[in-house]
Amino acid sequence: MNPVPNMPDSQQGIRLGSCLQLLVNTLIYRVGRAVIMFIQMLSLPLVARIGRAVGGLVFHLDARHRRVALKNLTMCFGWEKSSEEISQIAHENFRRIGENYLCMVKTAGMCFEELKHHLEFSGFEKLQQKGDKEPALNVVAAIGHFGNFELYSRIQDIRPDLQGATTYRALKHPAMNRLMQSLRGQNGCLFFERRTQGRKLRELLNRGGTLLGLLVDQNSFGLRSPFLGHDCNTSLAPAVLALRYNCQLFSIICHRVELAKWRLEVGEQIPTHQSGIPRSSQDIMRDVNRALETTVRRDPANWFWVHRRWKEAERTRPTSDPAPPFLLPERGPS
Question: Are 167 and 191 in contact (CB under 8 A)?
């Protein structure tokens, strides 16, 4: 007997498919939460060692990403390092990635009192200090996939006068996205989905007193600029927002010091004006790329070499595509 006699077969199929999808998402989320809880029960050094072992194994099993890393490293360092040295850097890079990703899960559940023994902070006195009678200024931090990069959100623990914020792109799989967001923002850092929450981010910047971290080492659309000797697509977002909201602009890097220990380091301020005149966004971002370049050369294994950073120009998005919502100009009252 048909339980819903007036419902067409196609609609029943859609309804059944939705129920199955919900069941699968729920199962993935609960299994994921169980794994997260187990990892967070372990000590941080043990989690780091497990992560390094997993990363070393993945280096041998994941041929696609191994080829990407070796190709990138050879392109950037092939003229100064032997193939054996490049292979060693790639192998260590996979170990670091495994260590960092598992440690991200562990450190997300740690309070600052527990975590501070594994962290060092350097150069944060360079950031704007709010005076009693001065308006709160914003700071834009150009950040990248260095070390345990989720630790950038813990800057707010040592600079509570600045509201930490960053942008992210939601994962396509809803259960995985929910899991990822459950690990973020537990210490008060705000996360804005860059395609849908641009207005909320602009409202925050208009209030002042925000430290906005923006990842700048991904293939993006806006500028073709050299990085490690080869042109790549570079986002203009840090420069555009720093100019629009009169922000200080710095690079902030997460360095691996030793097993399960990192240092968050503020670089030199990147000027947005010259003789009182705003610099071009393109020139500012070239300076940002140079700052990140120096960091990569300092410790090559600490960066995310498995990312296809240097995609061919002909395969990129046309320049006529709309800008991300958080880069759209402010609109006056209608």
Answer: yes
